[in-house]
Amino acid sequence: MPASTSAPLDQAFSMLRxxxxxxxxxxxxxxxxxxxxxxxxxxxxxxxxxxxxxCDACATxxxxxxxxxxxxxxxxxxxxxxFEMTDAQWNSLLIPINMAFFFRSSIENRMVxxxxxxxxxxESLLSLEAWNEIxxxxxxxxxxxxxxxxxxxxxxGHAQDLSSAEYYIAPIDDCYRLVGLIRANWKGLSGxxxxxxxxxxxxxxxxxxxxxxxxxxxx
Length: 219
What we know:
Layout: H1 3-20, E1 42-45, E2 50-53, H2 56-60, E3 70-72, E4 78-80, H3 87-92, E5 99-105, E6 110-117, E7 120-123, H4 128-137, E8 149-154, H5 156-159, E9 166-171, H6 172-185, H7 193-209, E10 211-213
Parallel strand pairs: 4-10
Antiparallel strand pairs: 1-2, 1-3, 4-9, 5-6, 5-8, 6-7, 8-9
Helix pairs in contact: 6-7
């Protein structure tokens, strides 16, 4: 093919490739509008329970803040190897699926139980008596930091006799990230293979970076 013909074709294909390439919108700090890296801190807007993306500088302002509109999400996860919860205790919490997270709301002054669904995070009723019984057997829950971290429970494998139940003290933004990936990937009635793969990846990642904590179950 003559060079005069191939050059315009090459340019045309190059332009098509640029249009076909999916470009991810640049995330910006929701406080100061600076561009953000893919991995960045998060704040919690207490009244709305919204996750707010922040730059390092803005997030640092809220590191030790205990009052105000925002708090910085916890940064470390803990895998609770000695956590104790019977099937009867789990059933008493009235969670319709085998996955949930529990955090204390400083504004509402109560424990809030949420479970992920195809429609997002769903709040469940919580028996105070049932929760207090679990806290009595797991003293670490008495130190759960309000708003910024949660008890994250994964009993999916346990319910199917495939693996042990997993219990974490997890940053609250990780809990909402789990909700988001389930909402984004759920298909049909059972969710489809893709969503269960994403859930598996989420917990594998969380476990790989969590500090292992044992010996603190009993009060």
